[in-house]
Amino acid sequence: MAFFLTLAYIALSIDASGLVRYLAFVVLKKGGKVGHILFFYLYAFFFALGSFIGNDPIILSGTAFLAYMTRVSSNIVHPRAWIHSQFAIANIASAILVSSNPTNLVLAGAFSIRFIDYTANMIVPVIITAIVLFPFLLYIVFADEMLIPLEITMHELSDAQKAKPAVNPNIPHARGKLEEQEDSSGTTDQAKSLPLEEIMNPFLDKGGAAFGAIIMAATLVTVLALNASSQAGQERPIFYVTLPAAFVMFVWDVGFGWVHRNETREIARKGREEIQEAREERAAREEQARKAGLEQYQEGAPDPSNPYGTPSSAPNIHERPSTPMVFISEPSNMSTLAKPALVTKGWVQVFAYGWDHWVTKTGIVGSIGGMGFLSVVLCNFAGTNIGTTILLSRVIQAWAEIRNSSDVAISDRMFWGTVYSMALGVNYGAFSTAFSASLAGLLWRDILSRKHIRVLSREFAKVNLPIIAMAMTVGCVVLIGEIYIMRHDGPYSL
């Protein structure tokens, strides 16, 4: 866990430097106004970047970028195609490296898989999935010019807006009253000018981005090299590499913030003052409108909401509106509690016996297809994809113990086919039928809601079902071919 947290800090620090948004802006300029080309460029960009830094930075910056881009386009009716494709490809890309997703880290630790071996087995199914999925998304799932127009019409920045310095979105209230206007009304021209500036004039801390990219690249190369060269029983904790790297990145961030503290505080102070002024002006307008309505009622004019003018419609200025009381319980980590309970009560062994019967009947193809299906389904019910990885890893370990106790060996093809199909399922399962299938899904929904884009649970499942079906089918088929080519029928070994 220390390995993932420290590496995640480096990735998020790179994201805070504005590098992801700036690169997305470069891709946007490269793609131009041709809708299909721009869709391809963004798809390839999110896949390439997500392969190295994981899905979280892509979700954090890429989702907001797409929300802004689709808002300032005059002929993209709904952002559905762009945001769902981005969410799917970010989670697909995170299956390549162990460092890209905590589920990969859990799986690699459970079966003592070297990082380089994990990537070598996963990279081909993942890349082919991404290649096949693109035309499926473009020409079948989102084959509508209202979603992906042939030509995208974007609003343009004025000369004054182009001359303004880029705003650092990490500074609280840096956007001032425009931030308040965006929250209150997301459809006016003035509100649209804010996201347009975010896209066409993005903030970039060049020093922080370059330094973070160097730290991340050096860390990943060192981790992969040490892990590949380590012998069995002589592995060193990986956080011996990532922790110093994260500390160096932290020192850089603190130093940069300290050097620019006066400028940052001034920007935040002005922003707070502008927001306060905007709120006071809005409150004054609302109060004036309320008084005008009260005077109209007192003069005997009929109330539009009560054309008969009955006294019951008169507003009572002395009565405070009732506020509904909402009880919010603290979330309990039920998935964490459930895993030991399933072990101590014997359910893991029951599942393992069931799995043993399944693979005995269906063979290698059934083990890959069955585990892929199970892992995707359980992501929606077993405490996100992390909980699913823990549970299914226990089941596979118990299955191996059952076979060992009965002196029936598991073939190399069947065992590793099962393990790597689970790796596909727990990564791809994030974009299945429920937001709670992954923490990234909950984060994605929260970011979109802040940008006034509501994605209902039913819509999320409806859009993702054909995508996850195609992605898992392609991934498992390629994995079957890879297993038959690269593996043997002899007993497996860790």
What is this structure, in a nutshell?
The protein is built from 19 helices and no strands. The radius of gyration is 27 Å and the shape is globular.
Biggest sheet, in brief?
Answer: none
Query: Tally the helices: what do you get?
Result: 19
Distance between the termini: 22 Å
Q: Determine the structural class based on helices, strands and strand pairing.
A: mainly alpha
Helix content: over 70%
Binned strand content: under 5%
Low-confidence sequence ranges: 185-191, 304-338
Can you tell me about this structure?
- InterPro entries: Cit_transptr-like_dom (IPR004680).
- The chain is mainly α and 494 residues long.
- The protein has 2 domains: 1-103 and 145-228 and 236-263, no CATH class; 337-486, no CATH class.
- 70% of the residues lie in helices and 0% in strands.
- It is built from 19 helices and no strands.
- Helix 16 packs antiparallel against helix 17 (412-428).
- The two termini are 22 Å apart.
Detail the topology: elements first, then pairings.
Elements: H1 2-16, H2 19-31, H3 35-53, H4 55-72, H5 80-93, H6 102-110, H7 115-141, H8 159-163, H9 177-184, H10 189-200, H11 206-229, H12 239-259, H13 261-298, H14 334-344, H15 347-379, H16 384-405, H17 412-428, H18 439-450, H19 457-486
